[in-house]
Specification:
It is a multi-pass membrane protein. It is found in: Cell membrane. InterPro entries: MFS, MFS_dom, MFS_trans_sf. It is a single chain. With 439 residues, this protein is mainly α. 75% of the residues lie in helices and 1% in strands. The protein contains 14 helices and 2 strands, in the order ααααααααααααααββ. The chain has a two-stranded antiparallel ribbon with strand order 1-2. The two termini are 40 Å apart. The model has no long low-confidence stretch (mean pLDDT 81).
């Protein structure tokens, strides 16, 4: 897996991702402490609102950013967005009102909504071999999971020597370091064949996405994965602190189980994806996570939940979650031409976060109103709905070349040159508006 680090451009991009994630992790801890400092016992409400603002920014800003990404130098765009994030982080220690937190969080997450899809779309342009790209996806997953595990520990260590608002300085340093690493790399920046209007550019990624059967399947899997992760992210602290009456360190142990399972999947995926299709691996991962969540709901109804049982459950759910979502970059790369990749990655970013925007509050409401057993069962049912939709919208067959015709093109059109009958893998574009023979 580490062999791809010999590629200098990718090595710098991975380093940029790691330092930016570290800065984000420090900001997460500092934001919770800032909310408590400003709102006291209402800090949970402040953080919940900030999380909602984050998701709204992701859902609304990503398509707009993608519309401009195809006309901008990609490296300059990434650097500017990193600088914006660094400046916002520097402003956070000086806020005195809760509304100021909300405004700054919206600006920060809007910049992230532009940065993340463009960054993700750059990797397959740098690593053109599919096996290398698969390894890169696993390394990115590992970086995310390591940040989840290590950033709280780093923050705790720093808080022994500095106040919590100093953590925002670390966040800013992380984003500046990310910008410098991006500057040091030479990035490809594909251009569209012809200029398009703003409406076309804003909606193009989502239109390509929703017209591609395997990407509609990916959206259904994203719904299932969001249902599982929402239960973990939103309700672990309530289960451990309230139901089990355990300490904050026990919360960290349970969440580490989820992150550890995800990391195990990241190590296993390159080999699994060599032997099995993306569809089989991703669907199996979602089935595993859903089945474990459903079994845990049944067990919790029959016997008290223990920390050990919860942690083992989260390990298996984390493995299924990572197996479901980590290969998604391969599907997105195969489903768009180079110039459309930023828009398609932005579409996945937008639509998947729309799933979390619905399921985060649902998981919290079920837990508050009915308890852990019902919340687990409800999230398992939501995940099953996604799995059912996958079977309907993502065909099991994966024909590499599809025989089709173009009655709207003249016989001498350049696209029609070559052997007859006309057959090739279908990618939605200006010449292919739908997948042939699709019902």
């Amino acid at each position: 897996m580490l062999s791809i680090l010999t590629n200098r451009t990718y090595r710098h991009l991975l380093a940029a991702q790691i330092v930016a994630l570290t800065g984000t992790g420090l900001a997460t801890v500092a934001l919770g402490l800032l909310a408590f400092d400003l709102a006291g016992n209402s800090a949970g409400l402040v953080l919940g609102t900030a999380l909602t603002i984050k998701m709204v920014a992701y859902v609304t800003v990503a398509p707009l950013a993608a519309a401009f990404a195809e006309r901008l130098d990609r490296r300059k765009m990434l650097v500017v967005l990193d600088v914006v994030r660094a400046l916002v982080a520097l402003c956070l220690p000086f806020v005195t009102e809760i509304w100021q937190v909300y405004v700054l969080i919206f600006v920060l997450q809007s910049a992230s909504a532009g940065f993340t899809p463009a960054f993700q779309a750059t990797i397959p342009d740098v690593l053109t071999d599919e096996q290398d790209y698969t390894k890169a996806l696993s390394l990115s997953r590992l970086a995310v999971d390591m940040e989840t595990l290590l950033s709280p520990m780093l923050a705790a260590s720093l808080l022994l020597f500095v106040s919590f608002d100093s953590l925002f300085l670390g966040t800013s340093v992380g984003f500046i370091a990310s910008a410098l690493l991006v500057v040091s790399a030479t990035l490809p920046s594909p251009r569209p064949v012809e200029p398009r209007g703003i409406y076309d550019r804003t909606t193009r990624g989502i239109r390509i996405y929703l017209k591609t059967p395997r990407l509609r399947g990916l959206l259904a899997l994203s719904w299932s994965a969001a249902a599982l992760s929402s239960m973990v992210i939103v309700n672990t602290v309530v289960i451990v602190r309230s139901n089990l009456d355990l300490s904050e360190s026990a919360v960290a142990i349970a969440l580490a189980g989820f992150g550890g399972g995800s990391m195990l999947a990241a190590f296993a995926l390159p080999r699994l994806l060599k032997r099995f299709s993306d569809r089989r691996v991703m669907f199996s991962g979602a089935v595993l996570g859903t089945g474990v969540m459903a079994i845990a709901a049944g067990l919790s109804a029959a016997m008290p939940i223990t920390l050990g049982l919860l942690t083992v459950t989260w390990v298996l759910v984390g493995f299924g979650y990572s197996s479901t979502l980590t290969p998604s970059g391969r599907l997105l790369t195969r489903s768009a031409h180079a110039e459309d990749r930023p828009a398609v990655f932005a579409a996945q970013f937008t639509l998947s976060h729309a799933c979390w925007l619905v399921l985060y509050p649902l998981a919290g409401w079920l837990m508050t109103r009915f308890g852990a057993t019902t919340a687990m069962a409800g999230m398992a049912v939501a995940a099953i709905l996604g799995l059912t939709l996958v079977l309907r919208v993502w065909p099991r067959t994966n024909t590499k070349a599809v025989v089709h015709s173009h009655p709207d093109l003249p016989p001498d059109h350049p696209h029609l040159t070559g052997p007859k009958p006309h057959a090739h893998p279908i990618i939605i574009d200006d010449l292919h508006h739908r997948v042939p023979h699709e019902p």
